[in-house]
Write a structure and sequence with these properties.
The complex is a heterodimer of chains A (about 90) and B (about 240). Helices cover about 15% and strands about 25% of the residues of chain A. Chain A has about 90 residues and is an alpha+beta fold. Chain A has a single domain (about 1-85), classed as Ubiquitin-like (UB roll) (Roll). Chain A has a 5-stranded mixed β-sheet with strand order 2-1-5-3-4, with helices on one face. Chain B has about 240 residues and is an alpha/beta fold. Chain B has a single domain (about 5-215), classed as NAD(P)-binding Rossmann-like Domain (Rossmann fold, 3-Layer(aba) Sandwich). Chain B has an 8-stranded mixed β-sheet with strand order 3-2-1-4-5-6-7-8, sandwiched between helices. In chain B, helix 1 packs across helix 7. The longest helix of chain B is centred in the last third of the chain and has 19 residues, at about 170-190. Chain B is globular. The termini of chain B are far apart. The chains are: A alpha+beta (about 90), B alpha/beta (about 240).
């Protein structure tokens, strides 16, 4: 299973875990399985049409999936998948 | 001792809060000599543990003025602009800066970060944009020709989906490390180093890892010239 890095704003869905292990041969399946394991998290990552939201980015092995195969990007068990939303803090 | 090229260029810092204070101290360490500080806010007691340019005697005073005075006492030519800069004002504000100036965006307003990016892209300027939340910091340096903030994030998050530091918390050391890193990126830009530009650095303090993510300009991003337009640099942006 791939290691998925969960950003701070979404850790309320993963019981505070920064990393979780999720199966999935590609990003689409991985996000579906992430939703099954942690209900409610996917709608924060994807819009109603299933596309990754414009203020969120997903990286597989530090590569932007939009430069790969987007949601069809293959994911290996050894991969680290980072979900990275734009954050705004700084005060 | 000179810190290098950063001592030759003016730097403008937007926001003198949790990120801005360590960024300003980092600029001092890097050798910056001319700094403009823009902030509308006033010092509060709750700021003091992480906004390390201020002390209890400053409570109620404008942050920009206090920060500029601190830096002047350290021999830096620092000026304050006490104002709330709206995203729609960013382009005109930036246009008034010297062309060689570097802008560091340190506010907690998502729309300002994107407006700063867009203005820098339009005006072909150098800028550094940062954010921090919880145990995590983001930093990206942009320079003409590099990928930009919109290459990574296409649009700002809606207000109801972006937690603030007040809601999600932020570790004082997270803004400290991230702010200092922003100053480092500005110094690298001043030196003409392009290899750090265009990549989103994610500082994950929980694991102690800094990741350099992406780095390639995104096709269709407003920072990329249209195929028929190889001279001018149009950037029509919808926030």
């Amino acid at each position: 299973m791939a290691t998925v890095r969960i950003p701070t704003p979404l850790r309320k869905f993963t019981q505070g875990k920064e990393e979780v292990s999720v199966a999935g041969g590609n990003v689409r399946d991985l996000l579906a399985n992430l939703e099954t394991a942690y209900p409610g998290i996917k709608e924060r990552i994807c819009d109603d049409a299933g596309a990754v939201r414009r203020f969120v980015n997903v990286f597989v092995a530090d590569e932007d999936i939009r430069f790969l195969e987007n949601l069809d990007t293959a994911v290996k068990d050894s991969d680290e998948v980072s979900i990275v939303p734009a954050i705004a803090g700084g005060r | 001792m000179s810190g290098g090229a950063i001592d030759q260029v003016p730097v403008a810092v937007l926001g003198a809060g949790g990120l801005g204070c360590p960024a300003l101290l980092g600029l001092r360490m890097a050798g910056a000599r001319r700094i403009t500080i823009v902030d509308h806010d006033r010092v509060e007691v709750s700021n003091l543990h992480r906004q390390v340019l201020y002390d209890v005697g400053d409570v109620g005073a404008p942050k920009a003025e206090v920060a500029a005075a601190r830096l002047r006492a350290l021999g830096i030519d620092a000026t304050a602009e006490v104002r709330r800069l709206a995203p729609v004002e960013l382009d005109a504000w930036m246009a008034a800066l010297p062309p060689e100036a570097i802008v560091i965006e340190c506010t907690d307003v998502p729309a300002l970060k994107f407006a700063c990016n867009d203005a820098a892209v339009r005006q072909r300027r150098r800028a550094v944009i940062g954010a921090a939340l919880g145990l995590r910091g983001h930093a990206i340096a942009i320079t003409p020709g590099s990928a930009c903030y919109r290459c990574v994030f296409e649009a700002p998050p809606p207000d109801d989906l972006v937690p603030t530091c007040a809601q999600a918390g932020v570790l004082g050391t997270a803004v400290g490390v991230t702010g200092a890193f922003l100053a480092h990126l500005a110094s690298a830009l001043a030196e003409g180093q392009r290899e750090l530009a265009g990549r989103l650095f994610e500082l994950a303090l929980g694991s102690g890892i800094i990741r350099a993510l992406g780095g390639r300009p995104r096709a269709g991003c407003p920072c990329r010239p249209a195929p028929h337009d190889s001279v001018s640099h149009h950037a029509t942006v919808v926030v």
